[in-house]
Design a protein that fits this description.
7 helices, YHS domain protein, alpha+beta, single chain
Length: 157
């Protein structure tokens, strides 16, 4: 089995989840209710160095997606400069984006590179991505220009 077929086979379940992102706009990976990052606090990755579940009572909206925060301080930091904290590629999988697809990014598989938060689909995908972070970021940046506004399911055809 080729790496591409293995990758596509491994993400099949994620396709249905990724298509639910359409409610908030296809350029942001959010639930059908518009919740981004599955409720994890985007600022905590930078301040705590770990994925931290946010509180539904502490919310802010940016780019038609709702973000939850663990603290009022994190919410204030986000509102002062949301683009500093939102994940790259709308929160979709960085490796998948490099391959031209939009798969859910898992908030537990992440890395900050040059002050940018990147998510990946799973641990094995994260390990592949880490093998050539600069190369995959370069590919994903180019790919994102083409796929940003596409529905995730449309990219699988």
């Amino acid at each position: 089995m080729t790496k591409t077929k293995s990758f596509l086979g491994g993400i099949a379940l994620s396709v249905a989840l990724a298509t639910s992102a359409l409610a908030a706009g296809v350029d942001v990976n959010a639930s059908s209710t518009g919740l981004a990052l599955q409720g994890f606090d985007p600022v905590a990755y930078f301040t705590e160095g770990a994925p931290t579940k946010g509180d539904y009572k502490l919310t802010s909206t940016f780019d038609e997606a709702t973000y939850w925060f663990a603290t009022e301080e994190n919410k204030a930091l986000f509102e002062a400069n949301p683009e500093a904290y939102i994940p790259a590629y709308g929160g979709y999988c960085a490796f998948g984006t490099a391959m031209g697809f939009k798969f859910d990014g898992d908030p537990n598989h992440w890395k900050i590179v040059d002050d940018v938060l990147y998510l990946n689909l799973s641990q094995d995908i994260q390990e592949r991505w880490v093998a050539d972070i600069p190369g995959f970021i370069q590919k994903a940046d180019v790919s994102w220009e083409t796929i940003e506004d596409a529905a995730p399911a449309d990219l699988l055809q």
